[in-house]
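quick one if you have a minute, typing this from the bus. below you get a single protein, a line of residues and a line of whole numbers that encode the local backbone shape. could you go over both lines and see whether the tokens make sense for that sequence. anything you notice is useful, everything is just below.
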Amino acid sequence: MFNHHKLGSVETLYLKTLETFLRHVNKFVYICTMSFQLEKYKGIHPGIILERLLAKKEISQRPFALSIGEHPQTINAITKGRRSLNTALALKIEAALGLEEGSLAFLQTYYEIAQEKKKALHTPNLSNLRKSLFWDTDVSKINWDKQYRAIIQRAYERGNETEKKELEAFYGEYKIKTALRNTRRKPYTIYKNKQKA
């Protein structure tokens, strides 16, 4: 950056210190700029960003996938948000597209954080529900919104008062009544084959 040979030792030391300082300032500015740019994409699946980048650069998914040694189905599943992006693949994609190292992995992490926060908002207090109530299911994978009828019916068939109260607090009285309205199942009927005479 500077020609140190024509200066004295004090000036040389000063310039080296200044160069070091400027390098650190540039790094800081770069990190702040990068985090500001990534800030607007937090919570978005990195596959969506990848799909936009490929479209912007007019690169088809299949040739791109083959160029980085991946199956085209893998890249397609990632761009559709059906599959998460692991670190090794993120590094390959970033290198191939000239992206900052770690940017896609950063987005994947923040996407997973957003999903966990969303899940936490839509989950009852699990400490009030016995594990034996959902003995046949991984409780962490229950979709409490979509499967509410089955959950409520099971709790009212096999649950205790604490569990019922927890679900009442979580779902509300209307949803509980709706789910319980059709709980009575018709008994199985065995029909005998009618033989022709």
Observations:
- The radius of gyration is 29 Å.
- The chain has a mean pLDDT of 82.
- Residues 152 and 176 are 7 Å apart (CA to CA).
- Residues 9-39 form the longest helix (31 residues).
